Every structure is written in structure tokens, then in C-alpha cells.
Amino acid sequence: MSDKKINVLQLVEGMSWGGAETKLLELINSMDRDRFSTTVCSLGMGNKIEGHFDALDIPFVNFERRRRIDPKLILDVAKIIREHQIDIVMTTLFYADVVGALASAISPNKAVFSWETISAPEWLLWHRLYAYRFAMRYCTKVISVSQATAKWLVEKRGVPEDKVMVIPYGVNLKEFKYDRNDSLRHELGIDNETKVVGVVARLHPQKGHCYLIEAAQKIVKSHPKVKFVFVGDGELREELQTLVKQKGLTEFFQFLGFRKDVKDLLRVFDVFVLPSLYEGLPNVILEAMASGLPVVATAVDGTVELIENDKSGYLVEPRNPAILSEKITTLLQDERIRKNFGKSGRMRVEKDYSLDLQVSSFQNLYTQYAMNGVSKK
Question: How far apart are CA 289 and CA 162, in angstroms?
């Protein structure tokens, strides 16, 4: 194999605190720098975590999007590809997918990969769908985080099946621990006897927080020593807080907003819940499992691939507060089940969803196309 480094351009539409951006940051930070030289390029849609990318000490380019649809960005990215002698382009999120694929069509790089992390209905709006389908003609591979998202890409977004491959998310197992964080519980005003049901998700209709609030009405009747902790912020915060107040549940709920210490907060929880209406492959469930937590989650998309029902958690139908209440109550009442589910979940992450596995898969893919003469198209 050649000693020449493989030059990779990571193109992302912006630097928000979303799951896709943070997972990209983690991937870049974990790449073998003796083998890969990375350049990051943002298309200007948000800059909340730009400093975190700067801290990696890698070349960073931030383009300004001059209008809602800015064709000049295609030429800007193509120029970066030539100037940095880029071998591999990987795109993250819709606008980067389109711009990156079209820039690669007029550039000498050897491959362009689109990293698809979620099967969101808004990606099927006609103006996005047709732009995406056209751009994907020039994409080498579309990398899905789950089998469910891969199926959705083929059936709904019209990507040819032979162009889609799956590389699941991975978790840095060194960062997630089993032991309960009593000091943080006390900081949050939660005593040792109180059981904590936690959710980590942006406050958005997709995540289904309202169904957990409905379920809580029944749970607190049999479990008055329980606290529901919502970690995350978003457009529904005021509406959800009002709903909690209307249900007479204010004393049982805490809204912590956006937090950077999620790995520590997971150690405060006794049960993790994610009542989403759709998902790609929810990384936060992997993090909860890595922390030894039992999980109750809706049986949607990639979530089904993570949780072994009745072994590492419970899968429930979406929009069903009654079944959500039943399964959460079962876990709150039985410490043995909680521990067994938590242990099983941790073992599953160690076996199939480690960060090392994910990084190795991407590095092998990049090498295959950059060094082995595989055709771009």
C-alpha cells in the first residue's frame, strides 16, 4: 500500500448541535491521522459547534450561503477539492449532499459518499426530493446508519439499491459508565429514593414527549417517588411545560434544557425512554445502553435494530401512552429486570456498535476507493 495519505473532505451543511454534526465531529476526531488527512467544509447553516471542529487542528473552511439556493457553492467546493487534492468527499445533511455530489461531478476526486442519518418526512418534500435524486446520480455510495433508513432511501427517496450501504453508528465505550452519579442527582435536587425516568432529545414533535407526559399521569399513581427528566431544548418547550402543568404533574417533571454533560446525566437515570415517531438510528439509545440503562422506546425505524425486546428493553408502538406507562412501571417496580436489561444492552453495544467498529468501516471504505482504483461512478 502507498505511504501517501488519503485526503478527505468532510462537507456539512452547518455546525448546529444536531446528532449528525456531533457524530461527524466524533468520527473526524477518531480517524487515523497517519493514514488520512481531513479538511472540513461548512456551507454556513449554523456555527454553534464550529469551535469544536477548529480545536481538532485540521483545515476548516466556512462558506457563506449568499441566498437560499446558491449554485456558486458548487464551484466553491469544487475549487477546494482541486486545491487540497481531495481523494474522498463525504457529505452530511441535505444541502451538503446536493452541493457535494454536484461539485464532485466536475472534480477529480475519486469518490463521493453521502452519509444519511435519519428518515425524516421533510426530506420527501418535492423540491428537496427531486434535487436530491438528481444529485445522487453523481454520488458513489449513500451510507445509511441503519437497515431501516437504507430501505427508506431506496423506497422513498429513489436511491438505487446497489448504491446504498450500511455503517451503523458507534459509541465510544470509554466515555460511558455503569455507576450511578449520586452527586449530580443531588445537584438536581433528586433524593436517593426517587426513581428517575430520563429522556434526552430535542423538544420537537418527532420525539413524542407529549405521549410520555400522558403516560406519566398513570405512572405517578403507583409510583409517587418518580421524577421525569427532559434533557434537550426546542420549539415545544413552552407547550410541553404547559401540558405538564395542565395535567397537575409539575412536581414530577424537570426540564433541564440543552446540556453538554449527557454522559453524566445518563448515570442519574434509572430508566431511559425515547417515544419517537420516527428515527434513523438513535445514537442516544446506544449511549443509554452503553451506560447500562434499561430502555423503553417506540418500535420505529432503526430503533428496532438496537433494542432486543424483553432482553435489553421494551419496544412499544408509537403514540400509545397506555403501553408506555405499563412498560415503564414494570421497570420501576423490578430492579432485577432493570439490571438484566442494562447488562444485556451494554454487551450488545460492545459487540456490534462500538466507535472502533464504525471508524474502521469508514477508513476501509475510504481506502478501497482512494487506493485500489475503484471507479467513482
Answer: 32
The pTM of this model reads: 0.90
Domain ranges of the chain: 6-170+355-371, 173-352
Q: Name the CATH topology of 173-352.
A: Rossmann fold (3.40.50)
Give pLDDT tens digits for 134-180: 999 999 999 999 999 999 999 999 999 999 999 999 999 999 988 88
Question: Is residue 275 a contact partner of residue 323, using CB atoms and an 8 Å limit?
Answer: no
Q: 128-136 long-range contacts, Cβ below 8 Å, gap at least 24? A: 128/94, 129/157, 129/158, 131/98, 132/94, 132/97, 132/98, 132/157, 133/157, 133/158, 133/159, 135/97, 135/98, 135/101, 135/102, 136/97, 136/101, 136/163
- Give the up-direction half-sphere exposure of residue 149: CA atoms within 13 A in the CB hemisphere: 26
Task: For residues 320 and 105, give the distance between their C-alpha atoms in angstroms, rounded to a whole number.
Answer: 47
Residues constituting the chain: 377
**pLDDT tens by residue, 9-61:** 999 986 665 667 788 889 999 999 999 999 999 887 656 555 666 677 888 88
Cell of 45: 447553516
Which is nearest to 163 in space by CA: 101, 248, 245?
101
- Between strands 253-257 and 226-231, the pairing is parallel
User: One fold for both 6-170+355-371 and 173-352?
Assistant: yes
CA nearest to 32, candidates 59, 6, 2: 6
CB 171 within 8 A of CB 145: no
Residue pointed to by grid coordinates 425516568: 197
Task: Please state which CATH number belongs to domain 6-170+355-371.
Answer: 3.40.50.2000
